[in-house]
Structures are given as C-alpha cells and as structure tokens.
Design goal:
The structure is a single chain. This protein is an alpha+beta fold and 728 residues long. The chain has five domains: 147 residues, no CATH class; 91 residues, no CATH class; 223 residues, Nucleotidyltransferase, domain 5 (2-Layer Sandwich), CATH 3.30.420.10; 79 residues, no CATH class; 53 residues. 40% of the residues lie in helices and 14% in strands. The chain is built from 24 helices and 18 strands. The chain has a six-stranded antiparallel barrel. It has a five-stranded antiparallel β-sheet with strand order 4-3-2-1-5, covered by helices on one side. Strand 2 and strand 3 form a beta hairpin. It starts with a strand and ends with a helix.
C-alpha cells in the first residue's frame, strides 16, 4: 500500500477510500472517503484491517490521479481563485507543515489542534474543518484548496421525467426550454428523453442522405405519438384507433435533440456514418505517418498517377479559326523519398496502360533528349533521373490490368513489386496527388481557356478560348517541373543523416545525396529492353503460316532464320511469349531464344486487312466477321439442301433415260472409249469455232459454210457412220 492509492469495493456496495498517509511504526494508514461530498475528516485504519479486506477480495487496490488543478501554475489561474486558496491555506498551514501535529491529528487526539487553528485564524469551526478535509481529499497540496469551478455544471443530470401541472401543462420552472416570442415553448430535456435519443441513435446506420431535421421528425414519429381510443372502450372491444402527435409543450426542442444526438453518436462517428468508411479514412482520418517510411533512399519506390488538366489545348493546324482539341491527361511519376518528379507524359487518351507505360518509359530514360524535343535545353544535372525503381505504387484501376503489371515484373528491369492502392483511396499516393495540385495551380495561368470549378455563366465555354498548343503547354509543364524539383522545400523528407551532412531541402538535393549514399550503382536499361518490359504480355501460337496472335499472322526475318514455321508444320504448333500494344496491331515483339535480343514481327499479307489499326478495331472486326461467316454458313447449308434436292431429281431423270438403253453384257473395258472421246473433243472444237466466227463483226459469208474436214453432231448420229466407225 502506497500514498495516492485507492481501496475500491469489488461488490455491489460502493466504497472508495484514498490512502493519504502510511505509518509503519503504528502499523496504520489514514484514508479519506472519496464518495462523500462534501469531504469528511480523514480517519485511521490498521494494517490488519486493510489486509483482511484485500485478502477477502472485498476491496482491491487501484492507482488514483488527482485533478490537473493540483499541478497548475499560478500564472494560469484566476487571481480571485489564488486569493481564496491562499486564505484557506493560511488557516491550516500550522497543521499541514508540521509532521508532529499531523501525526497527532491522524492517530491521536486532534481536538486541541483544531481549537488552536480556530483561535489563531478567527474563522468558524466549519470553515477550518472544511479546509482541512478539502486539502487531504484533493491532493494534500496548496492547490487542493482552489475552488473547483472546473467541474461546475458537469455533475448535473437533470430531472428523471417531465413534470406536468394539474391542468396538463408542462412545468417549465425548473429548467425551461428556449424562450419563444410566438407560439408555445418546448419543454426541457430529461433523463428519460436522453435514454430514448440514445436508443434512437443506435438504430441509425446510414446518414448519407438524411439531415438532422428529418431525424428529429423521425424521432417524434416514433416516441412522441400517442394512440387514442374512444372513451369508455375496453381492451377487448373492436374500435377504430387513431394517432396524434403530442403538443409542442410536451416536446423537446429540435436544438436539444440535435445536440444530444451528436453527443450520443459522437462527432467522428457522425461524420463516418454520413460519408462512409472509405471517404472518412480518405478525407477525415488523421495520418501521422509518412510515405517514405521504411524506404532506404531514392528509387526505392515510385508513385504514378494521372489527372485531367484544367485547360483546353489549341488546335495548331488551323490558321483562320481558334479551335480546341480537348483537355489533356497529365501523368506524373514521382519518387517517394525525395518527392522528385522523375517522369512526365501528357496525352489525349486514357487513362490506359499505353499512357502509363509511356510515363514510366520517360521516368526510366534520360531527360535531356526528351526536353530538347519540346524546345527546352537542360543539362543532365538539372534533371538527373533515368533510373529504374524497385517498387511501383499504382491505382487499382482497369488500366492497370493483370497482364500489364505481370509483363512489367517479368521483364526483369529492376522492379520487384507493384503496390495497388485500395479502391477510392487516392490519399495512399499523397506525394503525387499533392504534386498535381501544385502544377495545376502554377503551370496553368488565368486565361479564357482555363477550366474553373465555378465558372461565370456569362463567360464562353473554355473550349472556345484555347490559347496554348500542345508544344507550348509541354514547355510550361517541363519548366514548372524543373522549378519545383530545384526549389521546393521538403523539410519532412529529411532524416538524421541528411541533417548531419548538411543536405539541402530541395528534392534535387535529397535525390543527389541519396544516389551518392547508394551501395550499388543505379539500374540503367536500354530503350529496347524498357519498351519490351512495359508492353503488355500475351501468348502467341507459332504455325506454319506465321506467328498467330488473336487471329492475326506475323513474321520476321529472325523468325524465318530460326525455322519456327518449319518446326510448327512438322512437329506441331507451339506457343511463345510476346509483347504487344493496344494502339497498333502492325507489330508484336518477342525475345530471341539465344541472344535474348528483342525481335520485332510485322503483320503478313495474309492478315493485311488488320494493318495499322487499334486492337479494339481488330477485335470488333473479327466479331463482325464471325457473324458474317455464321450467316454464310447458314446460307450455304440451305443452298446445299436445295441443290441436293435438284441433283436427286436430275439423277432420277437420268436413271429413267438410261433404263431404256441396252446395257452391254461384256465385262472387259470398252475399246471404243478413246475413239468416242476423240470424236467428242472434235465436236466441241467445232462448236467453239462456230461461236468465235459468229461473234466477229467482220465475219464473211464463207464463215457460215460448214467445214468439210470437221465432223458435226449430225454425222455422229448417222447410223451408216456409226456402223462404219464403231463396228467393234
């Protein structure tokens, strides 16, 4: 047992005693009853009494903390409070600062000590005894005698139920509601009302589309409506019932209801129910950590995201009219540790993986040539970012498909992990999200082509006032990025080592320092390897007609030299890993099995109808072609049925004609077949000759005469000719 410990009851009988003194010589302790108000005089108990209570588990020991007023400084107190404290302390100072008197007061005869204090100060016995009791009850320090205005009003609970007068009116004398100039006043809130509001608050789940006034109406409908039955009707009588709302004098005010409802639910829980857990965690939850937690240095993790620029871009190929080509999509790749923007891409499509892959390609390659394309000349030291990261954080969007991310990881360019944020949690990429706000504000000036969240209705649409071309806009973005990387202060990104080495606060300073501290050199990859890794991955089949992917055939000189088509024709079809892009179907890529160089395959003439087209168009055309083939197959089947019926009818007529002819009995080959074949050929030649002569415009009358050297069909039918030539 120690000072400032409490002996607290463990059963239903409340008890709470504060230990204010421990005397080992007397084997006694002095305790104060904490449940008495006003405080009572301290009393002594033996060690055996306390040990017996603790052994029987009737009481248990707990630590106790006094009010913060015990340790508060005088400069923070009201001078009037200090004056009251000093006057009360001056009355009991002779007792509390004398160990001998305290020992007598706690464990001996205290009557003489109390009389002497009363005589010395000239105050009443009640005042002196109250000062002593308050002193020991509230901490045994001078500040224990401060007036406890801090708890004023906190212990008020209010009436249990509303009180009504004999005439049925609500008694508003004890604690009335707000005064009303017109109409009847509301009654005050009671403990019964608070219990009902607490019960009502537990039924509320979704507050997204509900306001507090509607909740007050729902509360009155549930708890402030009475059922009225005809006078004299028994419970077992069948009678019409109707309901009526209580008059205003028996209702609590909407203000009182809203105030206590918020108290029951809690401000934070009220916001969570109104916005939902996802938006609460995104916009209202505290974020004590930093994005760079656990990262070793620059290139440890990149974040990538896109946003639509708040500006319309001018169509630069029109000289007589100002036209717009829409709002571009800006992609940023940013290093988490240094906050350095390491990659940039601006396009008019997306969001899709093609645009993201272009932004990543820009982040992993040199920036000098990139800036030169847009007329901005820089040195490598101004934007020294051409390294592949180890981790990449992306949105969980449809553009970041499984095949795209898998192909990037399998490309083995240095990225070992791809982190996907939770849905609708852009705050998980706070570094890049904040960069968008900076660029949108600084790089896009105020002009008629800028998009405003709340535009003036009398102004023309921003698409009518586009000012900057794509090249001019890129120049502004690049210069703004360079300015940000070289001048922005990132004090929160500093650690102990940076401060020790005197590293600057800009992202460029942190990036350069981190690269110098790296144990291993940066990861640099060739453009071919980067493009191959950032393209989407798929499987293609090698056939004897070419490498088949999505029904389209490809080939290249390298594939021919590897004899893949020959192998497929003789040993069977096999598959290879390829890369492709959604924006063009003319090429696919794979790696040479031995040299590991990237092989580019071009579309063959067999599939030339799919050249230079989007894959979405190719797949749509193939679906349409399947429908055409299915309809053609149906038409072919119907035509085949009709043709078979026609041929069967012809066969029956031929059989009837042949049945009238004499069938030879010989089984040996017919020797006259060759002669008859020759004669039939001569007849066909004669007929073709006659057709040719009749078609000529300058044919002479001699052309119509029969050729004496050529047989005609009538000769073949002449019986004498047949007997002469076909006697055999």
């Amino acid at each position: 047992m120690q000072l400032n410990q409490k002996l607290v009851s463990t059963n239903k009988n409340p008890a709470e005693f504060l230990i204010i003194d421990v005397n080992h010589q007397r084997q006694q302790i002095t305790i104060v009853d904490m449940l008495c108000n006003p405080p009572k005089r301290p009393r002594a108990q033996s060690f055996s009494w306390a040990q017996e209570k603790l052994a029987s588990k009737e009481l248990k020991l707990e630590d106790h903390e006094h009010s913060d007023f015990v340790t508060i400084e005088d400069r923070e107190l009201n001078p009037k409070w200090i004056d009251k404290r000093n006057k009360a302390y001056a009355v009991i100072i002779d007792l509390v600062e004398s160990p001998q008197k305290l020992d007598r007061y706690f464990y001996g005869d205290a009557e003489g000590i109390l009389k002497r204090l009363i005589k010395n100060c000239g105050r009443s016995k009640k005042y002196v005894q109250a000062a002593i009791n308050r002193y020991f009850r509230h901490g045994s320090v001078p500040n224990a005698l401060l007036p406890h205005y801090d708890v004023c009003g906190k212990n008020y609970k209010g009436p249990e139920k509303p009180v009504y007068k004999k005439d049925g009116q609500t008694c508003l004398k004890s604690k009335p509601g707000p005064n009303t100039k017109y109409g009847n006043p509301f009654r005050h809130i009671t403990l019964e009302d608070k219990r009902k509001i607490l019960e009502f608050s537990k039924k509320l789940k979704d507050l997204k589309t509900v306001n507090l006034q509607d909740l007050y109406t729902d509360y009155c409908q549930e708890y402030c409506v009475v059922r009225i039955r005809p006078e004299g009707a028994q419970d077992n009588d069948i009678a019409d019932e109707f309901y009526s709302c209580l008059p205003r004098t028996r209702l609590i005010s909407p203000r009182a209801f809203k105030r206590y409802l918020k108290k029951c639910i809690g401000t934070l829980e009220f916001i969570r129910r109104r916005t939902g857990s996802i938006l609460y965690d995104k916009d209202h939850a505290g974020k004590p950590g930093v994005a760079s937690h656990g990262l070793r240095g620059p290139t440890s993790r990149y974040e990538i995201d896109s946003t639509t620029a708040d500006v319309y871009i001018r169509y630069e190929y029109s000289n007589d009219e100002r036209l717009s080509i829409g709002r571009p999509t800006i992609y940023f790749v940013i290093d988490v540790v240094s906050s350095m923007i390491v990659g940039l891409h601006v396009c008019f499509h997306g969001p899709d993986w093609h645009a993201e892959s272009q932004a990543l390609f820009n982040a992993f390659t040199d920036k000098v040539e990139f800036c030169r394309k847009f007329g901005v000349n820089i040195t490598p030291s101004q934007w020294p970012c051409a390294d592949v990261c180890k981790e990449l954080t992306l949105d969980r969007g449809t553009e970041n498909g499984h095949s795209s991310i898998t192909s990037m990881l399998k490309g083995k360019i240095g990225i070992i992990a791809a982190n996907f944020n939770a849905y609708h949690r852009g705050d998980c990429k706070g570094t890049v999200e904040k960069s968008f706000d900076t660029i949108q504000t600084k790089a896009i000036p105020q002009h008629e082509g800028k998009v405003y969240k709340a535009p003036r209705k009398e102004d023309a649409h921003p698409s009518r006032g586009a000012v900057y071309t794509y090249r001019q806009f890129m120049q502004r973005i690049i210069k703004e990025v360079l300015h940000r990387n070289n001048t922005m202060a990132r004090a929160d990104s500093h650690n102990y080592e940076m401060s020790r080495d005197g590293v600057g606060l800009t992202p460029l300073d942190i990036w350069n320092w981190g690269k110098q501290q790296a144990i291993f050199p940066p990861i640099n990859k060739s453009e071919d390897i980067l493009r191959f890794a950032l393209l989407k991955q798929a499987k293609a089949s090698v056939t004897d007609k070419g490498v088949k992917f999505r029904g389209v055939y490809y080939n290249s000189i390298e594939v021919t030299e590897l004899k893949w088509l020959d192998i497929a024709k003789n040993d069977g079809v096999f598959s290879v890993d390829i890369r492709y892009t959604d924006v063009n179907s003319s090429h696919i890529w794979c790696k040479h099995p031995e040299t590991k160089k990237v092989i580019q395959m071009e579309i063959t003439e067999r599939s030339c109808q799919y050249k230079d087209r989007l894959w979405a168009q190719v797949l749509a055309h193939q679906e349409k072609l399947k429908d055409i083939l299915a309809r053609l197959d149906e038409q072919r089947f119907n035509s085949r049925v009709l043709l078979n019926m026609d041929l069967a009818e012809m066969d029956n007529a031929v059989k009837e004609e042949v049945a009238k002819l004499k069938t030879p009995l010989a089984t040996s080959p017919d020797n006259g077949v060759k002669i008859r074949k020759k004669q039939q050929g001569d007849v066909e030649k004669q007929m073709q000759y006659q057709s040719m002569l009749s078609a000529m415009e300058d044919a002479t009358s001699f052309a119509n005469l029969p050729d004496p050297n050529v047989l005609c069909e009538d000769d073949l039918r002449d019986p004498s000719y047949q007997r002469k030539n076909f006697a055999a």
